[in-house]
Structures are given as C-alpha cells and as structure tokens.
Automatic annotation (TrEMBL):
HAMAP family: UPF0235. Gene3D superfamilies: YggU-like. This is UPF0235 protein A2149_03270. Belongs to the UPF0235 family.
Amino acid sequence: MFLKVKVIPRSSCNEIKEFSEGVLKVRLTSPPVEGKANKQLITFLSENFKVKKSEIKIVAGLKSREKLIEIPLKVVPEDISRIMTNNKAQNPK
C-alpha cells in the first residue's frame, strides 16, 4: 500500500497530526538534516503501525517534506485512526 505523507520537522513532539484528503501529516522532532527526519519517520511509523522498519520504504520525496511511503497491506485506515486517538490522549493541547 502507498501512503502520501507530509512531514513537519523540528516539532515539539512526534505525532500524527491529521489524515485528510489522502495525506498523513506527521510531526517529528528531528531536523531535516542528513536524513535524520527520514530515519525518525520510518522508526515512528514502524512503532505505531507495528511493522518492521525494513517493511517501510520511502519511494519518493527523500529530500522533500512531501513523501510517498510504501507500507505493508496489513496497515489499514483504522490503524491510522487508532494512532491519532492515542496521540491526542498522550499530547492534549
């Protein structure tokens, strides 16, 4: 499955901000320098979607905030909703 992701680097916390119009907006604490944000994105998605890091690939956008990610088919929209709910509970604003 392919997923469009917009990364917001140098954020105060790691979280999925929203999922709208087919784009997952992810806030990450890492800066967009030397691939640090890309590595953190893969780790973050791996932990939250319960898949191996090696199963997640950045197909396009390695040097862009807008990325195309390939993830296993076992990840479904309900997983995204669950993660967003958990993030909101942990990071109330």
